[in-house]
Design goal:
The structure is a single chain. The protein has 6 helices and 11 strands. The chain is α/β, with parallel strands linked by helices. The chain starts with a strand and ends in a 6-residue tail after the last helix.
């Protein structure tokens, strides 16, 4: 079974995180939510308190196939400031493992040089933070091992794309039908 680690920080966009986690779990993919705040409870950008499965220090990433970063401010800067997470993102990229980010969070990947030569998207106004990437206004784009999405309006589509990548077309199509996605 595939495993995803979804990172949470104070100031994250709650829906971006939880909609993607929900789609992945509905698609049969194991997800661990991981707080980078040194505590399991995080407070999102809309003051919603959410409990992560574990803290970064408690988590095991050995079985993870994909690392996911939700956006939001100051959630994105909080993710970018976590040295352990940045090291893990670099390690995954060097091994060709999958990375995904939405909204402002692709800037974390850009800041680490992990978007070099890739086509990527992000929330409007963050394009200059996608160092080395070719920017597109597409809602969700996968280029090699990196998947990016523009914002909260594309969170469900991002989750479905990640299910497609990790579990196949058939599983993604079944997920779309089960949630009454407009494309089915």
């Amino acid at each position: 079974m595939s495993k995803v680690s979804a990172f949470m920080a104070d100031g994250m966009e709650e829906v971006e995180c939880l909609a993607v986690v929900d789609m992945l779990r509905r698609g049969g993919i194991e997800v661990q939510t991981v707080s980078v705040m040194g505590r399991r409870q995080v407070v999102g950008s809309h003051q919603i308190e959410i409990g992560a499965d574990r803290t970064f220090e408690e988590a095991d990433f050995a079985d993870s196939e994909l690392l996911f970063l939700p956006g939001g401010v100051p959630g994105t800067p909080n993710l970018a400031a976590h040295e352990g997470l940045c090291g893990l993102l670099r390690e995954f990229a060097s091994k060709g493992k999958r990375l995904a980010a939405i909204c402002a969070a692709p800037s974390v990947l850009g800041g680490l040089g992990l978007l070099e030569g890739k086509t990527a998207t992000c929330y409007p106004g963050w394009e200059d933070q996608l160092a080395g990437a070719v920017y597109t206004r597409q809602g969700v784009i996968t280029d090699g091992n990196v998947t990016t999405a523009r914002g909260v309006g594309f969170a469900i589509d991002l989750g479905i794309e990640l299910v497609r990548l990790l579990a196949g077309e058939e599983k993604a199509a079944a997920l779309k039908e089960s949630i009454q996605h407009p494309d089915c």
